[in-house]
Amino acid sequence: MTPFARKKQQLYLVLSGIFIVNALLAEIIGVKIFSVEKTFGLSGDLTAGVLIWPVVFITTDIINEYFGKEGVLRISYLTVGLIAYAFVVIYGSTKLVPADFWLDINKTDAQGRPFNIEFAYQSIFRQGLGIIIGSITAFLIGQVLDASVFQFLRRRTSNRFIWLRATGSTLISQLVDSFVVLFVAFYLFGNWSFDQVLHVAGFNYGYKFAVAILLTPVLYLAHYLIDRYLGQEDSVELQQEATADVSV
């Protein structure tokens, strides 16, 4: 294996690892809706998972930059499979009969109030089963849209304006993702009203919109570090392959 091929493989492996772990974590913690006002002093409500989604879509753009649409879709399909596997395992764990001593030592909370830990466990993780359907649907639509818009803008700008193709593709894909995931998870499979879906989805998207713009310098920093790691000549070659959608 040539030094270039080895660096290329290692780069894709690292970026894929960052992508997968953050996507999986976002899906798992996404069952919690928290008050932004009570937490940060700003009005609105967000899903906990949305806090780390910026890492996912920044990584998506970096992968797209160096490995093209094929590279993004390959890792996206793998991630969907891993998320589905994780939730199958989690669902299986909810079917296990709890040990008596575990229920007994956790029968009260820190204030001494009655507490049913098995009920809490079931409530949290079984709620995630409804979310997973919406999440996978929205994730796939969002990733395909992001990868396609990114490459469209890249061709239209002759490989210039990194900020435009990265931010533009993110803003379009996350507009769809933000509404689809909540509509499917909490309206079709949950007990939310449509107004609640619109309210939370709108605020989620506003957060993603703001963060996508704020993280633009991070994208340029990542581009700079990767170019130094690969070397300018190899970096240009890899980006040319990405534009032509050459496989990893």
UniProtKB/TrEMBL annotation:
Membrane topology listed for this record:
Multi-pass membrane protein
Which residues span the membrane?
12-34, 46-63, 75-94, 129-150, 162-189, 209-226
Instruction: Please name the InterPro entries in this protein's record.
Output: YhhQ
What domain of life is recorded for the organism? Bacteria
One matching Pfam family, short form? Vut_1
Entries under NCBIfam families matching the protein: queuosine precursor transporter
Spell out the family assignment given in the record's similarity comment.
Belongs to the vitamin uptake transporter (VUT/ECF) (TC 2.A.88) family. Q precursor transporter subfamily.
Spell out the protein name for this chain.
Probable queuosine precursor transporter
Origin organism is Hymenobacter saemangeumensis
